[in-house]
Write a structure and sequence with these properties.
alpha/beta, Quinone Oxidoreductase, Chain A, domain 1, Rossmann fold, 2 domains, 7-stranded mixed sheet, 6-stranded parallel sheet, 12 helices, 15 strands, NAD(P)-bd_dom_sf
Length: 319
């Protein structure tokens, strides 16, 4: 089969090779073989290539966290999160507990509604317990997790403040439903959040950025608010001064989507069903900015890492 593989760790441009004749992965007893139609790219793919992701698969491995396709030899349409070393940037992979894909949803959409939408749904509902009428602060609102979080928070009846870098991304956040959108390159977000909430602050913060963004979010969160740490796309994890959490009585919640695959897979199944229902009634729709060919994967990852993209980049594996 044709697949992207990593034989040594480093920058994706340097270590990714597109190969023919790669052996097809054999499914374990709890897995099914899947013929891949589409695979979505994530910042985590960059970390995986560098050896800096929390999972460290043996070399060589195929990157790619999320796919949509058909169970091999059938017309059964499925999507799911991959288990490494058999990632999704290949013509065939294996999935445990594959999620059903409705006929009304394209493979491109199905691949784009996995990592970012499951992350955002679990961040808002399972971890933060979002309630209608609350205010949500979403960072990197034009990115994959951020764009999903804006839509899902609005669908839940919340007010949304989103941050993004540059006028075009700010406009996109407003288009997605954000009540207030802030260009973090030119304006601090703390004061607008306080203004919108009468000085109270955001009830929920979804932070896939980390670093200084997390530090300033602590000033913007409400008394008894919840900050969900969903990643560190800014390249640097933040440190939490616990005395500040005590003074404001806020909660910091971690979200590691991958752990649910092995520790509580039913949580992913339930969240995916809820997302499919929201999609069916038009409440959410993934922002797919580009559909790439297989040979464009390194360039896509380069631009994604440099924050030169919006929404999701999806790879058409069968084209």
């Amino acid at each position: 089969m044709r697949a992207w593989r990593v034989h040594e760790l480093g920058e994706p441009d340097d270590v990714l090779t597109l190969e023919d004749g790669v052996p097809e992965p054999e499914p374990a007893p709890d897995e099914v073989a899947v013929e891949v139609d589409a695979a979505a790219l994530n910042f985590s793919d960059v970390l995986l290539c560098r050896g800096r992701y929390r999972e460290k698969p043996p070399l060589p491995f195929v990157p790619g966290f999320e796919v949509a396709g058909r169970v091999a030899g059938t017309d059964r349409r499925v999507a799911g999160l991959c288990r490494f070393p058999a990632g999704g940037l290949a013509e065939r992979t294996v999935l445990a507990a594959p999620l059903p894909v409705p006929d009304t949803m394209s493979a491109t959409t199905a691949a784009a509604m996995l990592v970012t939408y499951l992350t955002s749904h679990l961040a808002l509902h399972r971890r933060a317990g979002l309630r209608a009428g609350e205010t949500v602060l979403v960072h990197a609102g034009a990115g994959g997790v951020g764009s999903a979080a804006i839509q899902l928070a609005k669908a839940a009846g919340a007010r949304v403040v989103a941050t993004a870098g540059g006028p075009e991304k700010v406009a996109l956040c407003r288009h997605l439903g954000a009540d207030v959108a802030i260009d973090y390159r030119t304006e601090d977000f703390v004061a607008p959040v306080k203004d919108l909430t009468g000085g109270r602050g955001a009830d929920v913060v979804v932070d896939p950025v980390g670093g200084e963004t997390f530090d300033r979010s602590r000033r913007a969160v409400a008394f008894e608010g919840r900050i969900v740490v969903a990643g560190f796309g800014g390249g640097k994890p933040a440190e939490l001064p616990t005395n500040h959490a005590l003074v404001k009585n806020y909660t910091v919640l971690g979200l590691n989507l991958g752990l649910y695959r092995t520790r509580a897979p039913w949580v992913l199944t339930e969240a995916h069903a809820a997302l499919a229902e929201l999609y069916a009634r038009g409440a959410v729709a993934p922002l797919v900015s580009e559909v790439l060919a297989m040979d464009e994967v390194p360039d896509g990852l380069r631009r994604l890492h440099a924050r030169g993209t919006v929404g999701k980049l999806v790879v058409s594996v069968t084209s």
